[in-house]
Specification:
Elements: E1 3-6, E2 11-15, H1 19-26, H2 35-38, H3 47-54, H4 67-86, E3 91-93, E4 98-102, E5 109-110, E6 114-117, E7 123-132, H5 136-141, H6 148-161, E8 165-176, E9 179-190, H7 195-214
Parallel strand pairs: 7-8
Antiparallel strand pairs: 1-2, 2-4, 3-6, 4-5, 6-7, 8-9
Helix pairs in contact: 6-7
């Protein structure tokens, strides 16, 4: 039995009973982790791959048992608690199997690692990432900026949640000859600084969803190499 909570005139939060129900529900919309595919900025999935999944021509790969996914899933609640300790000025909310929809963007949903409120009453998004740095190219992607695919995810959440800001908490894991080194970074994004990008994302997601509804394949967008 799913629970519903009205956030405002446009946004509704669903709390689903199980992860299986949550997985089924999220397949009916564009999710945050899929936003980069729509824009051709996901190195692991093209926009046409995503279109085939959304139109039922291909099953989405189940990666839940992969070690790096399981590590991230198990680490998330611990990192969320650390975030609370590091930023006591922010209220942090979270419930399992959450799914938000916004009537202004009926093609999309948001499943959040946390939602925030600062002392001025502004609302925010918390996204948590863990990654193991194995090559210098991976390290460079995190150097002073958010990797493109995760940036698209934050934009998606800002759009759906109508939030004022977003924070990406990233734990970067290095293995120096068997010695594990962890580096934590926090990337802050203000909605007012990314208004043009939000407009671009909204237009591209809307166009992509029209393709899924009509059954017409969009033109392939290849990510830069």
């Amino acid at each position: 039995m799913r629970k519903t909570r009205r956030i405002n005139d446009h946004i509704t939060m669903f709390t689903l009973e199980s992860r299986e129900e949550w997985l089924k529900a999220r397949g009916q919309h564009i999710g945050g982790s899929e936003a980069a595919s729509v824009l051709g900025l996901n190195p692991y999935q093209t926009n046409t791959d995503l279109w085939r999944i959304k139109t039922g021509q291909r099953e989405a790969e189940d990666i839940s048992s992969k070690p790096f996914v399981k590590y991230g899933h198990d680490a998330e609640p611990l990192l969320r608690e650390l975030f609370k300790l590091d930023y006591p000025e922010l209220e942090v909310g979270y419930v399992e199997n959450n799914l938000f929809v916004n009537s202004r963007y009926p093609w999309a949903h948001a499943s959040l690692d946390g939602w925030l409120r600062d002392r001025e009453g502004r609302t925010g998004i918390l996204e948590i990432k863990t990654t193991e740095i194995l090559q210098s190219m991976q390290r460079e992607k995190w150097n002073k900026h958010i990797p493109d695919n995760y940036y698209c995810q934050l934009l998606h959440y800002l759009l759906i949640m109508e939030a004022d800001f977003a924070v990406l908490k990233a734990q970067l894991k290095y293995d120096f000859y068997g010695n594990i080194v962890l580096q934590t970074r926090h990337y802050w994004v203000e909605r007012s600084d990314v208004s043009e990008d939000l407009q671009i994302l909204e237009g591209r997601e809307r166009e992509f969803w029209e393709h899924t509804q009509k059954g017409t394949q969009p033109a392939l967008i290849l990510p830069e190499i």
